[in-house]
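so my prof wants the structure for this chain in the tokens format not the other one, which i didnt know existed until like an hour ago. anyway here's the sequence
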Amino acid sequence: MKKPNQPHLSAREIFGKNLRRTRRLKEVTQEELALRADLSRTYVSEVERGARNISIDNMFRLAEALGVPLRDLVDPTLFDVLNDLSE
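here's what i got, hopefully its the right format
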């Protein structure tokens, strides 16, 4: 059940927040992640901010580049992103 007063995050925002948090936990820069996934750093930045509508193929490339299952990056509860909107 959804808690009152919690803003709804889109799937792209959840993915972006999980991607950023995972990348930081693994101490990987956006540039390094972009190189590993064969994407541009600007693209990675836009994905992390939820500004880019990402394809499933690119989601998989980013997850693989970080060494995590894709399901972790789409899980809205992984980092409790609904309660951590300040980051």
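also thought this was worth mentioning. The radius of gyration is 13 Å.
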